[in-house]
Amino acid sequence: MGKTALVTGAAAGIGRACALRLAKEGHAIGVLDLDLAGCQKVVAEIEAAGGKAIALQASIADRPQVQAAVDTLRAALGPVTILVNNAGISNFYDFEDLTDEIWDRMFEINTKGTFIVTQVVLPDMKAAQWGRIVNISSSSAQTGSIQQVHYSASKGAVITMTRSLAQALGPMGITVNNIPPGSVLGTIMSETNLSKKSIDHLNETLPVRRVGEPNDIANACAWLCLEDSSYVTGQTIGVNGGRVVS
After folding, report:
1. What is the pTM of this model?
2. Coil, strand or helix: which one is 202?
């Protein structure tokens, strides 16, 4: 039976792919992003395929905006029991050039935003005694990244948050896992950060010999949200083409 899912950062890239994939599984989707026009396009795609969705605009770091968006979603499509925390920002700075403002902004979006959205949605999951939370972290949080000390640290916090929440919420029937993508084409971050030379290098050196696509992440996300995945929680499911191996 379909649930209601909220996907953040869903106007494009990985978020869009997760929204479309979960809709294909029969879930109603709240498509949330700062880019409302992008959200509306994703909603149109979902509806064209016979699904249900609503476009929502909010900054995940603004609690009143998030609360209003979730209230709208709940009223339109029902209690929210699936959450994909995908929204985030990324940039590159030498460590010596980082300012307090740059550091704080990174944590405000990537870490605090994930905290806010999860906390706002949680009452619906507790009431249902069922929930699926999937946090999109980053493989940079596992390996480190020379010019992304702030970004890696913020996403590392998301991984640790995942582990702690899994322990806290497991008795309520709520699983919490995270996916740290490797390099993924078709995202705002990849368009900004990946040159053709970088892509060619990855295609030659990654164990699977290709750069990732948004659907690679979406497929793993959909699996984690299944009823059959109820025994998987607190885990880091690396979808990175073998960039990070355990």
Report:
1. 0.91
2. helix
